[in-house]
Amino acid sequence: MRYYKRLPLSGMSNCRDLGGYPSKFGRVTSFGVFLRSEAPVKLPTGDIEFLKAYGVKKSLDFRGEESINDFPSSLDTEGIEYIIMPMFGRADALGFEKNGKDPSEGFSGWGKSYIQWIETYKGWIRDVFRELSECDGIVQYNCNAGKDRTGIISALLLSLCGVELSDVAFDYCVSRAMLKPRFNVLADQWGDYLKDKSGRLISNHPFLYTPRDAMYTLFSYINRTYKNTENYLLSCGITDLELYRIRSRLLG
């Protein structure tokens, strides 16, 4: 089987395998275990068949009800177990409904937001990790853009498996580059607040960035408060056995 870092799909630009990162445990994260991506919306048949052949058996959708209803997942299909697991309930980014307002008003940066999320939504993180530990095939997971909710889960997975913070931050930061060709398409899904009065994309909108400092701020908090990522995950109610299963899978 040939594995890819970024999968060659025509309908998604930010679908990436978590394999290939060195771990402090003397191993390299395995390909063909977890895929992170933006929402798999209106995928051509060839992309769906490619993902099935790649080994995807389960798809976790972190989007809210409104986004899923407006833009259904193409992976809600025969042969893939599709599970809706919204972090925010019906709402999407930062818990706002589509109401014409810009949810970035008063935004204090992604690092602070992620800290708030990992404390507020511990039950969601527990449930996601439980699903990640219970699949023999590849698990694909996504939010809207595949950078924030998806980024937090990816960062916690990599950190749990002993990947250095610099590599965790790299995996997070690269989303902006991968998503840039699709910003206009994604803006139609996220909301009008990403466009100016002329309907053009606001390319420097803070919601389009994946700054390195966000990961350093997040893990500085985790290490200061919980000593390490494993302790944080245990505080969410994830069991030792579930963490062992995830480590065993991602580290081969």
Structure description:
The protein has 252 residues and is an alpha/beta fold. The protein is 42% helix and 8% strand. The protein has a single domain (16-250), classed as Protein tyrosine phosphatase superfamily (Protein-Tyrosine Phosphatase, Chain A), CATH 3.90.190.10. The protein contains ten helices and five strands; from the N terminus they run E-E-H-E-H-E-H-H-E-H-H-H-H-H-H. The chain has a five-stranded mixed β-sheet with strand order 1-2-5-3-4. Helix 5 (149-160) runs antiparallel to helix 6 (165-179). The chain is globular and about 50 Å long. It starts with 15 loop residues before the first strand and ends with a helix.
Task: List the defining traits of the structure above.
alpha/beta; 252 residues
Concise synopsis of the structure shown:
This protein has helices at 45-54, 65-70, 110-120, 122-133, 149-160, 165-179, 183-190, 212-226, 229-235, 240-250; strands at residues 16-17, 34-37, 56-61, 81-84, 138-142. The protein is α/β, with parallel strands linked by helices and 252 residues long.
CA-based gyration radius: 17 Å
User: How many helix segments?
Assistant: 10
Number of strands: 5
Shape: globular
Helical content stands at 40-55%
Q: Strand order within the widest sheet? A: 1-2-5-3-4
CATH fourth-tier homologous superfamily: Protein tyrosine phosphatase superfamily
The proportion of residues in beta strands is 5-15%
What's the overall average pLDDT, rounded?
91
Number of domains: 1
Structural class assignment: alpha/beta
Element string (H = helix, E = strand): EEHEHEHHEHHHHHH
Low-confidence stretches: 90-99
